[in-house]
Amino acid sequence: MLVLDMPRDVSKAMMAKLIRFLELRGLGTKLVPHEDGFFLLLVSGSPSPKLKERLRSLSFVRRCVDASDPFPLASTSLIKGPRRIRVGDAVVVGGGVPVVMAGPCSVEGEEQIRRMARLVKEAGASVLRGGVFKPRTNPYSFQGLGLEGLRIMSEAAREEGIPIVTEVMEPSQVGVMYPYVDVFQVGTRNMYNYPLLKELGKGDKPVLLKRGMSATVDEWLQAAEYVLSEGNFNVMLCERGIRTFEARTRNTLDLNSVALIKRLSHLPVVVDPSHGTGRRDLVLPMSLAAVAAGADGLLIEVHENPSRAKSDGDQSITPSELTRLVGMVSVLSASLGRGSELALVG
Q1: 292-338: per-residue pLDDT in tens?
Q2: 292 and 162 in one domain?
Q3: 173 shares a domain with 52
Q4: I need a surface site. Which of 11, 174, 206, 233 has the fewest CB within 10 A?
Q5: CATH number for the domain harbouring residue 264
Q6: Are 153 and 193 in the same domain?
Q7: How far apart are CA 22 and CA 14, in angstroms?
């Protein structure tokens, strides 16, 4: 795919003239705004070598790039990276110190989430996670507290000065959730929900895109491309394990993908060892392995009493275990030359 990189000050009239010129020659186009200008993607048709040279010679075209991957915006063809994404006021994901995002699988009540916000911050986590809309395989399982749960989670996080990440399930929820959310999480079941991805791409809030449980790396990156192609480049990829023949763990945590994506993409990669293993005794070792593989962050499920959790208690660690995990990740991060101050909230 041929991609033209143009500065932000190119006139609308000149842009429209160029697009018209290309479309008259049978070339389909997609215009994508980014922080430093515009990418014009030639999404269909095949420009001749002569036309490519003509495009390269245009004074307002900075670069003319032949992108070989089916996810040019997510690839390193256009943006070298590593990309750094600001979450809330003072947390940065990507390009250095790993960020720990921790909290309960589900927001179960106001007192619970207030305690958890305080405890995860004291443990050294930088972002509070928690589910308020719960896509469950069993329709009779706990489905979450919905918007009321989001409101109390947001209030608890503001009191502690910590941003939140929570799951969105459908396009109609994005606008309602927008004032409360710092990071929109797209769950594994919704990686293929293209209307949702496009809607999230129209805003500027960070998106944590979980890998589909049976998705290839290319499919995952192309899902990210849906968000990027609408103009939102604040996308973090989340490896949460894939479905294999192994029955001893909930999923198989594919840490190959972390190192691979670091070569293919400029986007930060977060690892979820809670869903990736389904076992609390494996969360710590796989967290350390993820950081060693290059992960920019960890998504950890934490509960004060995992045996009484309304969802995913088997994979939830306790606050004291989170404190130990953050300490060990800090030591490992420092030994790898990536820094050791995990909690960036000032």
Answers
A1: 999 999 999 999 999 988 888 899 999 999 999 999 999 999 999 98
A2: yes
A3: no
A4: 11
A5: 3.20.20.70
A6: yes
A7: 12
| pTM, two decimal places | 0.93
8 Å CB contact between 131 and 167? yes
Range of the domain at 215: 85-335
Q: 3-state DSSP helix/strand/coil percent for the chain, to nearest 5? A: 40, 20, 40
Q: Which residue has the tokens 């509070």?
A: 128
My answer on whether 36 and 173 are in the same domain is no
Closest CA to 239 of 258, 265, 224: 258
Q: Which amino acid type is present at position 59? A: S
- The answer to whether 321 and 287 are in contact (CB under 8 A) is no
CATH code: domain of residue 25: 3.30.70
Instruction: Give, for 280, the enclosing helix (H) or strand (E).
Output: helix 280-293
The set of residues, in sequence order, having a beta carbon less than 8 Å from that of 323 and lying 6+ positions away, is 122, 123, 124
**175/324 same-domain check:** yes
Mark whether 141 and 246 lie in a shared domain.
Answer: yes
Total domains, the chain: 2
The whole-angstrom distance between residue 100's C-alpha and the CA centroid of its chain comes to 13
Per-residue tens of pLDDT for the chain, all 346 residues: 999 999 999 999 999 999 999 999 999 999 999 988 999 999 999 999 999 999 999 999 999 999 989 999 999 999 987 999 999 998 999 978 899 999 999 999 999 999 999 999 999 999 999 999 866 667 756 667 888 899 999 999 999 999 999 999 999 999 999 999 999 999 999 999 999 999 999 999 999 999 999 999 999 999 999 999 999 999 999 999 999 999 999 999 999 999 999 999 999 999 999 999 999 999 999 999 999 999 999 999 999 999 988 888 899 999 999 999 999 999 999 999 987 665 444 3
